[in-house]
Task: structure prediction
Amino acid sequence: MTTVSAPPVLVVVQLSGGNDFMNTVVPITDGIYHDSRPTLGVKEKDALPLNDQLAWNPVAAPLKELYDQGNVAIIQGIGYENHNRSHFRGMDIWHTCEPDKIVTEGWLGKTIRELDPSGDNVVTGISFGKGLPRAMVSPGVPVTSVSDLDSFGVMSTITADQQREEALGVFKRMYTPAVGSGIVADYLSHTGTNALASAQILGSVPGKYSSTVEYASNSIAKSLRDVARVHTAGIGTRVFYTQHGGYDTHATQLAVHPKLLTELTTAIMDFFQDLRDHNASEEVVMLVFSEFGRRIKDNGSGTDHGSGGGAFLIGDRVRGGLYGQYPSLEFAQLANGEDLGYNIDFRSVYSTLLDQWLGVEANPIVNGSYEQLKPFIE
Result:
């Protein structure tokens, strides 16, 4: 386990919809890329060089800056075997580490149980955004779901119950058809989520925070600012979860995807600058992931669901660089004859974070043993 001066913290950023990794970290010198993307291809003259073969999308300049500082590990070709292009099933697999069956326990829910076995701190795990992600769910494990930090801490009993029920209601509506009402009811009845206790703890957080960083006015910037506010308040949160939606770019991708990448990368840069200004960055690692990548060829307006994609580990203690090989664009190497393949199982990345960063035994959480990366500075 990597040693830091404060308890290690994990921040997860989910890019919902399937981020186009090929237009994020671009195989800029590959002729197949340019031939396959006559409409959406990033032009070499516009791209920001990464090395002799790869380049950043020009709107991802903030992430490039962090990479050039040595603080971004690019996980190339992340995915899993027999990939399913369904949003629901794909995200389900990422959330539970179970590719062959439907279960209710999420990998981070199990992780939070290991970090706080007695459930003493109801804010050990916090999700910012609408609903409770399945990754955070585990029976008896308290997890706080916050849509608005400024109002959450001043909730009345009624509004606290309403927000709690809204978060759990999303879970109930999504998973009852898949796993049955009995399992869902068991989770809902035994969960230790306590919105009022969380509100009492979080109520003082906004008043303690001051910063010179001016975050943008979009959802991911707001969520990461809330993460910074809670983390710097020192209330013991070890796992944060945030989501940035809109990455299902079947159409109008030329307008949508650059906007999303601008929002995302600027928010990440602002977040780490904020933490550094507060001397609170060393103990934080961020995982940025999406449920799948997009297909090699554009469809004239966007890109359709693919298989292999990419992820990022970001932080002061991250050993930056490229991990794994960029998946081949040669036809014989494509998944399903039209997708990027995968070189690194996503559970390898989870195992790395659990064992080497959080100090939690990975095998029971990811349901097996997977080769780990070495992305952390000792």
Observations:
- The chain has one domain: 9-366.
- Confidence is low (pLDDT under 50) at residues 154-158, 188-193.
- The radius of gyration is 20 Å.
